[in-house]
Design brief:
There is one protein chain. This protein is 27% helix and 29% strand. It has 162 residues and is an alpha+beta fold. Strands 1, 2, 3, 4, 5, 6, 7 and 8 form an eight-stranded antiparallel beta sheet that branches. The protein is globular and about 35 Å long.
Length: 162
């Protein structure tokens, strides 16, 4: 991808509390659904994606806005950090349930896509983790706050649906 920056370091930002994150995400999602303006989709130097999952318990569609990072091949990668909380975020648990979510939808500035959400493991996870945290060191801090391994999810095989 020619539009992937060589460095994806983001600007400084004030980290919200974990209690604030769900509300901020809901507000951000609602706002992003009304615009394709760059200033809405890129915050603190980070591009964002709206991830649509199906609830593993409820069966309802859920949306969450997440910052993403481009891997060297130009694919979007998100981190299931939830600021280093002891448990995985709900969006990740929904996504990891392949029965409920064999494919997911993502909205990025300019389009809605169906795609595969690939949870990275082993050497590939380590390779991407090392590259990602070179640009976004705070993820190492989030990892230090929890015993769980922060999952990395890469969106692949995008097919535009609108």
């Amino acid at each position: 991808m020619s539009d992937v920056p060589a460095s994806q370091k983001n600007e400084a930002f004030d980290e919200p509390s974990r209690d604030e994150i769900p509300g901020i995400s809901r507000q951000h999602t609602a706002f992003l659904e009304t615009t394709d303006a760059e200033e809405a989709w890129i915050i603190a130097g980070m591009d964002h994606v709206i991830l649509h999952t199906i609830g593993r318990k409820s069966g309802n569609e859920h949306k969450v806005t997440l910052p993403f990072w481009y891997d060297p091949e130009g694919r979007r990668v998100v981190v299931g950090s939830f600021s280093g909380a002891p448990e995985h975020p709900a969006w990740y648990l929904n996504l990891a349930d392949r029965t409920a979510n064999p494919k997911v939808k993502i909205r990025v500035r300019g389009g809605l896509y169906e795609c595969d959400a690939v949870v990275l493991e082993g050497e590939e996870r380590q390779r991407i983790w090392d590259l990602l945290t070179t640009d976004r060191e705070y993820y190492r801090d989030y990892q230090s706050r929890t015993d769980r391994e922060l999952p990395l999810v890469r969106f692949e095989n995008l097919v535009e649906i609108s």
